[in-house]
Amino acid sequence: MNRKKILSLINIIFSILFLIYVAIAITQQLERPPEERTWYGKIAGIPYDFRLPTVERIRNTFWNKDTSQIFLPQAFGIGWSINMYPIIHPEEVQKLQ
Question: Is 80 helix (H, G, I), strand (E, B) or coil?
C-alpha cells in the first residue's frame, strides 16, 4: 500500500471511533431525565464536554493557576487541553505541591 492510502485508512478509522464516542456520549446523556443531564462526563477515561464554553471555563482550561496538572479536560469537545500556566511558571507550581 502506498503512504496516502495508509494515512487515509488511519483517518477513516479514527473518524469512525470519534463518531462512535460522540454517539455514546450523547446517548448516555439522553438516557437521563432532562433535569439530570449535564452534557459532560467521561467514557473509558476520556473526558467530554458538550456545554457551550464560557470565558471562565476556557481560561481555567488553558491558564489554570490552581493546579499543577498540564493536561486538563477540554472546555468544549472531547479529550484534553494543555494548561500553559505550569509550563510557563514552573516555580509557582512547585509552591502548590
Answer: strand
- Residue 9: the pLDDT is 87
Dihedral Cα 26, 32, 33, 36, nearest 10 deg: -90
What is the spatial distance between Cα 77 and Cα 72, in angstroms, rounded to a whole number? 12
Q: What is the pTM assigned to this prediction?
A: 0.81
**Pairing label, strands 80-82, 40-43:** unpaired
Q: What are the domain boundaries of the chain?
A: 3-96
Q: What is the dihedral of CA 77, 21, 66, 55, to 10 degrees?
A: 20
| Low-confidence residues of the chain: pLDDT under 50 | none
DSSP tag of 41: E
User: Beta strand 46-49 with 40-43: parallel, antiparallel or unpaired?
Assistant: antiparallel
Q: How many Å separate Cα 13 from the centre of its chain?
A: 19
